[in-house]
Amino acid sequence: MNPRLELLQPYPFEKLRKLLATANPQATGLPLVDLSIGEPKHDAPELAKQAIVNSLAGLSGYPPTKGDPALRTAISGWLANRYRIKAPDPETQVLPVLGSREALFAIAQTVVDPNAGGLVVCPNPFYQIYEGAALLAGAEPFYVNADPTNHFLSDWRSVSPAVWHRTQLLYVCNPGNPAGSVMPLEDWQMLFELADEHDFVIASDECYSEIYLDESQPPLGGLQAAVALGRDDFRRLVSFSSLSKRSNLPGLRSGFVAGDAQIIAKFLLYRTYHGSAMSGVVTAASLAAWQDEEHVRANRQTYREKFDAVLEILGPVMDVQRPQASFYLWARTPYDDAKFTHDLLDQQAVKVLPGSYVSRTADGINPGENRIRIALVAPLADCVEGAKRIASFMTNNP
């Protein structure tokens, strides 16, 4: 067995199941409201469903690892329209992937030299795939705490030159999970300069980029920042996105990676052996989804309605802010976040996720401590009901 498997920590939801095993929400007589998992619950777009039906004949052939040329071209066009940049070369700078999760894991296996004693730098709180990818690639994760005084953006300036010198890969989550803040251009400039100086790759996880709450201010993306800073070749940068959140298609397992052509070429080589080609059926649905924005705008409007309704209820009783982009609230708890989560389920039949479960202690601080992540993925009525119960719980447990 690979000894590095022993380094992996339980996934947050496995820890959550154990934590909540002794809660008894049934005794409340209330129906469960589950706001713990970031799994979109809105309807999948009909155009994607119809594309699947129309493409079933495509199951009879092996798909290309590089992806269908039409899909690569559609993704390139979407990137150009969304970020107002010259379209990336669909032949060398774009690869379809089976959801951003598998690609975010696989990129570490591609770029990390396991014999070099390298570091993989991660935001903290973070998506646990970053940590697992680093460990299984033979590197050591290094966590950069979110700064609560700066909208929970990662405090990249706190990282020492010695750490950057050992860094082989930097994961950026933009917009961030869980606080939903967007990294400004000046931070991108700093990271690009550090990547050039210390020779590391930046992997920008942008799966929440299309769930922004101000229609006039779409989040700045990594490729867009690169172009703005004169890095039209996207050197040292690869950007990841997905249809899971944008188009409510988490079960489709479809996304893309785009950026530096040299990195993409090596990534394609890895994926040739990894066995992660996208089927014709998924390709057809993906092509339909990337070429339509109407369902995406409607999706954002639904989330806005939920944030408006829920924050009106929770704002007076909790320290909680409206995010720039994402479907989460990152709320402060009056006592230990794990105990709060247990008590909330036990007394109000509402399930959330402890903030400390998506964070690690770094420099003596766990930035998720005494916070919970609330996923507003359920229907509006359920989110409102959950918010009312949380507010009642807060009133009774100040």
Automatic annotation (TrEMBL):
Source organism, top-level taxon: Bacteria
Enzyme class: transferase
Names of required cofactors: pyridoxal 5'-phosphate
Residue intervals of the Aminotransferase class I/classII large domain: 32-377
Keywords: Aminotransferase, Transferase
Gene3D superfamilies membership: Aspartate Aminotransferase, domain 1 (3.90.1150.10), Type I PLP-dependent aspartate aminotransferase-like (Major domain) (3.40.640.10)
EC number: 2.6.1.17
Entry GO MF terms: succinyldiaminopimelate transaminase activity
InterPro entries in alphabetical order: Aminotransferase_I/II_large, DapC_beta/gammaproteobac, LL-DAP_aminotransferase, PyrdxlP-dep_Trfase, PyrdxlP-dep_Trfase_major, PyrdxlP-dep_Trfase_small
PANTHER family the UniProt entry points to: AMINO ACID AMINOTRANSFERASE (PTHR42832), L-GLUTAMINE--4-(METHYLSULFANYL)-2-OXOBUTANOATE AMINOTRANSFERASE (PTHR42832:SF3)
Name assigned to this protein: Succinyldiaminopimelate transaminase
Originating species: Orrella daihaiensis
